[in-house]
Structures are given as C-alpha cells and as structure tokens.
Amino acid sequence: MPRMTTRKLKALETKKTLLETGLELFHKKGFDNVTVDEIAKKCNVSKGAFYVHFNTKYDIFNEKFKDIDNFYSTFQQGIPKNISASEKILMFYKAQMIYLRDELGKDLIRNVYMNAMSLTINKNHYLADPDRNLYKVINSFVQEGIENNEFKEELTTEEASVLITRCMRGTIYDWIIFGEEFDVVQEMTKFTSTILNGLKK
Amino acid sequence: MPRMTTRKLKALETKKTLLETGLELFHKKGFDNVTVDEIAKKCNVSKGAFYVHFNTKYDIFNEKFKDIDNFYSTFQQGIPKNISASEKILMFYKAQMIYLRDELGKDLIRNVYMNAMSLTINKNHYLADPDRNLYKVINSFVQEGIENNEFKEELTTEEASVLITRCMRGTIYDWIIFGEEFDVVQEMTKFTSTILNGLKK
DNA sequence: TAATTTAAGTGACCACAGTATTTGACTTTG
DNA sequence: CAAAGTCAAATACTGTGGTCACTTAAATTA
C-alpha cells in the first residue's frame, strides 16, 4: 500500500465516484444507452479523467464482476460437509446463478462475456484467468470427489475442473443468446448434473 | 423467386461483390482492421450502398457462417450406419470443428459469436435459431440413441439435444477466450464424450 | 409514350469510444 | 525553500459504424 498523499486520495475518490455513477447509470438505462461523457459529466469531471482510471467503458462492469470472488468465499463457508462433491458443486452453481441473475443482472454479464471475447484484450481476461477463485473452489471439490472414489480418474483434476467450469460458461452464453424464457438456474443444474454423471464411476 | 429485372440483377451483383471483397479483406487484415468505407471503396460504391444490402458490418461474416449448413448436409451422407449414436455425434462434431478452424477461421467465429450476444439483434440470431440444420441433425441422432436404448429417457429428445449443442457453444466460447494453446478439436471431443457418458444408461 | 412509383445508390452527417497533447497543482529532491 | 519532476485532469481531436434526406435511373401503369 503506497503512502496516501492528498492527490492520491482525491484520485481514488474520483475513481470511486466514476465507478458508482457508472454502475448506477448502467443499471438504470442499460449499458448501451449510457455514454462515457455522460458518466464523466455527472461526476463533474472530463472524459479524459475517465480514461485515466479505466481502460475501456467495459471496465466498470468488469470491476463490479470481480465482486463475485467475495461471493465465492462467503458461500464456501456455509456449505455442508456431509454431502457428495457433486452435490456441493451443484449447490455452489445454483447459488452462483441466482447471484448473477438477481444481483449482477443479465446486462452486466452480457457485457463481461462480450468483452472477454474481444481481440483487443492483450492479456487474458479475468474470466479466463486460471488464478480466479472460481477455479480454486471447483478444483478442491473435484479433488475431493476423486479422493472419495466418486469420480473416475480418466481425466486429471485440472481437466475435469475445466470441463465443469465450461458448463457454466456454456450455460451463461446460452442465457445471453436465447430469449427471455431461458431459466438460467434450471438450465445450469440440468447441464452440470449431466456432466457430473459423465464423470462419475 | 422474383422475376429478374436488370436493376435487380445489378443490385445482386453489387451485393455479391461487397460480400466477396469484405470476406477477402477480413481474411487478409482481420475484421477489426477493415472499415466499411474501405470495402465500399474497393467495390466502387458508397458506404450507403453497403447498408442497403447489409444491416451491419458483422453481416458479412454471418452470411458466410451460414455456409455451415451445407457442410452439415454433405457430411451427414457420408456417415457410417453401423456405429452408435454417440459415435456419430462425436464424428460429426470433430469434422465440424476442423471445418471451423481450417475453413472459416477463428476470427470469423469470434465475430459471429460476439454478434449473437449483442442486444441490438431484434430477432434471434441465426446461432440461436431452432430451425437451424444443426439442431435437426443432432435431434435425429439423439432420437436414434433413445430408440436404441443407448440414452436414458430422463430428458426429452429436445432437452438432450440442447445440452449437446450447448457443449459445442461452450467449447467454442472457450476456444475464443483462452489463448493460442487451446486445441478446439480435442477439447470438443473431451467435453462432448463426457456429456454423452452422462446421458447413457 | 408520358406520368408515376420504386428502390439502389449517394454523400454529408452524427454519435460516441477512445487518443494525443497540454496544463497546472501537488510532491519530491537537493 | 526553490527547482524539478510527476501525474490527475482538461481539451481538442480522430476514427469509424451507422443514419438520413435526397438523387437518379429503371420499372410499372395508364
């Protein structure tokens, strides 16, 4: 943590205001109907200042999306010990989908998922970062499942974990491209239990 | 088929030229490095004319992408009769991934998949159109598998087909967001066989 | 064949994300 | 404390996808 000078504090304050105002406007009007100018103006700051703190308009949503890691940690503590690895994964995914749907919202997820695809991201997007908490959580469940003889050992822990998280991304992608009748919680459960079945002995 | 007047013929010729020139330039320089103006200019036509024939820049790639339906038809004819439904699906997917990778290319697929997510598509994108040949092909394989007692009947034919095509979209999404070392053919096989395992009795 | 309708094509224009350059207040250094 | 350096912020600008009002030539109708 660098020493906090007056200037740095003020900059941090600006960033925070931009972030909160951006989220609020996106929520109210939808991502595509909000301009960077509008966010800046509402913060009494220039557009240039926005780009001091964020690389793209998407970054507002990306930043918020990372909150999900906190969700993971708090969720993991409340999970029962006496259920199978599969059940843990299903519980975890179900809670996560409810969180995405009700807390973050489809508009945010759409934009995070779109942004992750864009070529102009030089480094890997957070979504594909193997150090994400998500991968650690799933990995530990899978490991447990293999140790308990619940899952077969055809695939490595890492390979199985990738497939399980791919289930999630695939379902979320479908949630975005299919119409309103798509029930992301139910579809996630259906898809993931089938994959887990395929991994079982 | 409407009667072909001189004018309609000329318009069709313009559209064809725009399409071919667009594809050529996208292939040569990458989608993001080609402007609509550039395509139009190379066809000796104004940018406005481009938008008479296409709704968005993406449409060039979308149109080409639809060629994949022809691929499906020709592929289906050469498939052996005496293998299981699962094997047919795996063969089909493998051939399709090779086609995507080597014929259409990742840049095209990225843009089709991105475009499908955008909110401004009023109707469903082609990718999510249930009348696509893809869904018919997979549906027939699944039906066969259920009739042969290869797959369990927990899920309806439609539900199982959706899951199987979701495997494909999920893998392609990962192909796009993960780095260069991602082997789309191998990953597709791994993911799909696990799902098929989960569907088997 | 003359009048009317249709639609392909034009080109100036707009909106808006992102960039390059400059400014000046704050911080660091000697 | 003064000079030098830094960096948040401002401003003007660019590039590009897409739009709109209009033109013009071909097609249709009378």
Automatic annotation (TrEMBL), chains A, B:
GO MF annotations, alphabetized: DNA binding
Check the record and name the Gene3D superfamilies matching this protein.
Homeodomain-like, Tetracycline Repressor, domain 2
Q: Where is the HTH tetR-type domain?
A: 12-72
DNA-binding region, residues: 35-54
| Keywords of this entry | DNA-binding, Repressor
One family name in Pfam for this protein: TetR_C_4
> What is this protein's record name?
TetR/AcrR family transcriptional regulator
Species this chain originates from:
Oceanobacillus profundus
